[in-house]
Design brief:
single chain, alpha/beta, seven-stranded mixed β-sheet, 6 helices
Length: 228
């Protein structure tokens, strides 16, 4: 049986307005590197990752100025209107039989151990999986007026993380068949809508996504502890 091949897709065409910066959040600097450089670095250094495809906006003027843009493993493609479009554009450049790890451009604290966990799962089971961490806080469901309707049972409740890894052809087919009425915010959602099952692997909770301005300080703290 042939050895499995692993590639990475980084959708990076978004603007990330909630951070409140003048440039897309993935280009903000933490410890002398941009967020996206931190996010991509573990994949470029990983011996089992063959290719990294980055989807950027048509008018992106920042990524090509980064030193990693010239890395031999890395290819740039034009992104789409939504995250799912950017992912699909990148997937179509990769071999159908690859297992593809899709990772958020604004998750700079990913550790190699979580990449290893996904790759090991694929080699053992020949199936995809996603990283997630258990919900620790009490969860509340509200109405549109922010009045609590009920408390959500947190047992078996998870925070979705990335990377999320699936067989490339399976993911292309799932995304291509999505009805426009469905909002797809991650790759697992597409697989679920297509009737597939998705396994969760427990990942590190410090694999945070920079969404709000205060996340920058927390990401800086984590990265400083990693020696980045």
């Amino acid at each position: 049986m042939s050895e499995l091949s692993f590639s990475v897709v980084i959708p990076a065409a978004g603007i990330g307005k909630r951070v409140g910066a003048d440039i897309p959040k993935q280009y903000l600097a933490i410890l002398d590197k941009t967020i996206i450089e931190h996010s991509i670095a573990p994949f470029l250094a990983h011996p089992d990752i063959k290719k990294v495809i980055v989807s950027v906006a048509k008018n992106d003027q920042w990524f090509k100025t980064l030193s990693i843009a010239q890395h031999p493993k890395l290819t740039i493609v034009e992104g789409g209107k939504e995250r799912v479009d950017s992912v699909l554009n990148a997937l179509k450049t990769l071999p159908n039989n690859d297992y593809v790890l899709v990772h958020d451009a604004a998750r700079p604290c990913l550790q190699t151990s979580d990449i290893d966990k996904l790759i090991s799962h694929a080699r053992t089971t020949k199936t995809g999986a996603m990283l997630a961490c258990r919900v620790r806080d009490t969860m509340k469901r509200t109405n549109q007026s922010n009045q609590i309707e009920h408390t959500v049972e947190r047992q078996n409740l998870w925070h979705a993380l990335t990377p999320q890894m699936f067989h490339n052809q399976q993911l292309i087919t799932a995304i291509s068949n999505i009805d426009e009425q469905h909002l797809i915010t991650d790759e697992a959602s597409a697989i679920e809508l297509a009737g597939g099952s998705v396994t969760i692997l427990e990942g590190r909770s410090d694999n945070l996504k920079v969404t709000q301005s205060e996340d920058l300080l927390l990401a800086e703290f984590y990265l400083s502890k990693l020696g980045s």
